[in-house]
Design a protein that fits this description.
The structure is a single chain. The chain has one domain: Glycerol-3-phosphate (1)-acyltransferase. The chain has 6 helices and 7 strands; from the N terminus they run αββαβαβαβαββα. β3, α3 and β4 form a beta-alpha-beta unit. The model has no long low-confidence stretch (mean pLDDT 91).
Length: 199
């Protein structure tokens, strides 16, 4: 998918993150070079989506809370950057269908399983829809840890080092959507992210 606006911003963010934040990308080879992929990362800052999208060599599509799309100018921009709306706190079937369609078409979808930012930096509980999407699509999940974005302009730190760690893909059996299997998959995802956060 050729998105000139997306690529221009990726170039700008790459420059900023390299020069000012000395960012490190670890395990990028764990991201499949083709086919549908679900990237699941922790969420500690509003900067996480653009930082993660910059680190991934392929275009990433994001779920973003629907409130953001009600701000006309901002909503227009994030749509240009491959975001699509999701209603938080409920099983948004439209968002799930959109994510499934993208994954089946061979695209990358980025999701923050916690559903919202962690203000403490501590990994929270996953929303149930993440494992459901993965099981229905049958695509690999790449657990991801982002560190440093929540320390920008906080605690006296202006330019902290930012690190993105991509873990080994988690294979998912398509169609295995019973409650026990989905809960187990959700826990596996969060455990892998937790291990990556520990470095």
């Amino acid at each position: 998918m050729n998105n000139v606006f997306y690529e221009i911003l990726r170039f700008v963010f790459t420059f900023i993150l390299t020069v000012f934040f000395r960012w490190k990308i670890i395990g990028v080879d764990n991201i499949p070079k083709q086919g549908g992929v679900l990237i699941c990362a922790n969420h500690v800052s509003n900067l996480d989506p653009p930082v993660l999208a910059t680190a991934v060599p392929r275009a990433v599509h994001y779920m973003a809370k629907d409130e953001l799309f009600r701000i006309w100018a901002f909503g227009h921009i994030i749509r240009k950057l491959n975001a699509f709306p999701v209603r938080r706190g409920s099983a948004d079937r439209t968002a799930i269908r959109t994510a499934l369609g993208l994954l089946i078409a061979g695209e990358i979808v980025g999701i923050f399983p916690e559903g919202t930012r962690s203000k403490t930096g501590i990994l929270g509980n996953p929303e149930p829809g993440v494992s459901l999407i993965a099981a229905r699509a049958g695509v690999p999940i790449v657990p991801t840890a982002i560190t440093g974005t929540n320390r920008i302009f906080s605690g006296g730190t202006i330019l902290p080092q930012i690190t993105i760690r991509f873990g080994k893909p988690i294979s998912v059996e398509q169609g295995k959507i019973d409650k026990e299997s989905l809960e187990q998959l959700s826990q596996t995802i969060m455990n892998e992210i937790s291990n990556l956060l520990k470095g």
